[in-house]
Design a protein that fits this description.
Distance between the termini: 36 Å
Largest sheet: 7 strands, mixed
Strand content: 15-25%
Number of strands: 27
Number of domains: 3
Strand order of the largest sheet: 3-4-5-8-9-12-11
Helix content: 25-40%
Low-confidence stretches: 224-237
Shape: flat
Length: 559
């Protein structure tokens, strides 16, 4: 029977009628997604059990081991999302999708010899449970054809697998809705109430790590707002304490951090050339006297000291987020506290650092006031006072404080980071990736015509590489953000064209063949004419941009 499927080639993901595509290797799709969206993740995959269907269809149970922590592992079931078709339940069956569990004996080896979901559920009954090497995930993948890279992952809570693993001799299914898959394509993720299965969850691949971290919460309570954890975050065992995301501008570095942090567990600061130690740690500033009776001076804590205190007073993971870390002079901003960010094996600072009198007095007053308040307030001070033995002359980072930062490689010449500072950080490159992101659907609107944002970026980045002999100044897929998939001509000129001119081309001779601010009246023209940024604000600027697209060989479509 035909189903209400999603047209992934359409910008608005229209509902279409057709047959679900299931003739693919679901396990290989999962591994491909890991390698595409998390290219720096070092892991080993082992096949625990596998079922071969008709044609190229294959389902797999993997064991995944992070290379940085070989003692810890988790398990992943990988399925195809297929049609359900129960006519009495969901719109005569057309809108029903499902994970179809074939009988456990169809798997090699038989699932009842490797019941990983059952082991997961059994461990949940322990109080408290230890899921080390028992974590299990159930994923199915929706794609329209063999070449489709725009994919939705549908996730079921692993307790739904244990019956099939151990008891079932016939096929069983977990049903959900194609409309919810469509919603995930549009919004990035969606949630569906299942009467017997708690919540079902659908999401784009860039939310995979965030889902895995917050799986239990996402399946047990309704979401409000965006996909972010509320409360304590359980981090992967290989989660770096000090981490810098780096890459071209607009690749989604800040968005990567947003995937595992909340407003409640972060303190943020953006570095710039005028940021100094006092703006980062704290300094004396005028303070209004209580009741408005004049002004006095006192020590005011800034981002670092705020997050430092916040982390010592909770068991939850706390994050100091530094945006644009290389736009500030890190040696000047961190001062001697940079020694403190090097961690010992237990996650605490390897070295305690002496503090000046002002910080010592500030911390002493803060924690003595907490102790004097008694009750819950005094409890906040207990960990700090025990660790330092009541002294406030030194400071050290607790093992629940993480410092994560972003760095645009295009800005790396502002303040070079020295090797002593660099070696105290883990570094994660964020590549330019369109597949599976909303930027894949962006269109540049010039006059009455649309031009593919992806085609523009891919074409221009090749030319930037030629001009600069470097990938550092390339444009990321989110260099400009659109909330309706349309980039206006005004924004395109002011942000994209200005960046290319100011950072790439303004010092290049127009006679050089590498200079690519050029226009052609038609694609039959063999000669192109150079232009400069100020020409874009002439009376014929719209036609100039269209001629620029012709030169770049980017086709127009009617708006």
């Amino acid at each position: 029977m035909p189903y209400n499927l999603i047209d992934t080639a359409a910008n608005n993901y229209n509902i279409v009628s057709g047959d679900p595509f299931v003739n693919f290797d679901a396990g290989q799709v999962f591994l491909d997604l890991l390698n595409t969206h998390y290219p720096t993740l070092q892991y080993t995959s082992q096949i625990v059990s596998q079922r071969n269907g008709n044609g190229n269809r294959r389902e797999t149970l993997f064991k995944i081991i992070f290379n940085s922590n070989p003692a810890s592992s988790f398990f992943v079931y990988c399925f195809q999302t297929e049609g359900g078709g129960r006519s009495n339940l969901i719109t005569n069956g057309e809108d029903e999708a499902r994970i179809q569990w074939r009988s456990h004996s169809g798997w090699i080896p038989d699932l009842n010899t490797v019941p990983k979901a059952a082991e997961f559920q059994a461990e949940l009954r322990n109080q408290p449970s230890d899921l080390t090497n028992k974590e299990c995930y159930l994923f199915s993948f929706y794609k329209r054809d063999a070449n489709d890279t725009d994919i939705i992952i549908s996730a079921s809570y692993p307790t739904q697998a244990q019956d099939v693993e151990t008891n079932s001799t016939s096929n069983k299914s977990i049903q959900f809705s194609y409309e919810k898959i469509q919603q995930a394509f549009i919004s990035g993720y969606s949630q569906q109430r299942k009467e017997n299965y708690e919540f079902f969850f659908h999401f784009k691949p860039q939310y995979l790590i965030s889902y895995m971290i917050n799986r239990d919460q996402l399946h047990k309570q309704a979401l409000e707002g965006v996909l972010k954890p509320s409360g304590s975050i359980v981090r992967p065992t290989n989660f770096p304490y000090n981490l810098i995301y780096f890459g071209a501008p607009g690749t989604g570095k800040s968005n990567a951090i947003d995937g595992y942090t909340t407003d409640d567990n972060t303190v943020k600061i953006t570095f710039h050339p005028d940021t100094d130690y006092s703006a980062f740690v704290g300094s004396y500033k005028p303070i209004q006297v209580a009741g408005g009776a004049g002004v006095t001076y006192g020590f005011v804590a800034q981002a670092f000291l705020k997050v430092y205190i916040k982390a010592w007073e909770t068991d939850e993971d706390i994050f100091l987020i530094i945006e644009e870390i290389n736009r500030g002079n890190c040696a000047q901003i961190f001062g001697d506290i940079f020694q403190m960010i090097e961690r010992a094996e237990d996650g605490y600072s390897k070295y305690k650092v002496d503090v000046d009198t002002e910080i010592e007095k500030y911390l002493k007053k803060h924690y003595e006031d907490l102790e004097a308040a008694g009750g819950a307030e005094a409890a906040k001070a207990a960990r700090y006072m025990a660790y330092f033995g009541g002294s406030f002359k030194k400071i050290a980072l607790p093992n629940n404080l993480f410092i994560h930062a972003t760095m645009n490689t295009s800005d790396q010449s502002l303040f070079p980071i020295d090797s002593a500072f660099k070696r105290r950080w883990d570094w994660e490159y964020v590549p330019i990736v369109f597949d599976g992101t909303e930027a894949n659907a962006y269109q540049i609107l010039i006059g009455d015509e649309n031009y593919s944002w992806r085609k523009f970026i891919e074409t221009v980045n090749e030319k930037i590489q030629t001009v600069s002999d470097s990938a550092d100044k390339k444009l990321g897929q989110f260099f400009i953000k659109s909330f309706d998939n349309s980039i206006s001509e005004k924004a395109f000129k002011a942000k994209v064209m200005f960046y290319i001119w100011n950072d790439i081309l303004k010092d290049e001779p127009q006679t050089d063949e590498k200079y690519f601010f050029r226009r052609k009246a038609s694609d039959q023209d063999t000669v192109s004419t150079p232009f400069i940024f100020s020409d874009l604000f002439s009376t014929n600027s719209t036609q100039l941009l269209k001629d620029f697209m012709i030169y770049l060989d980017i086709a127009a479509t009617p708006a």
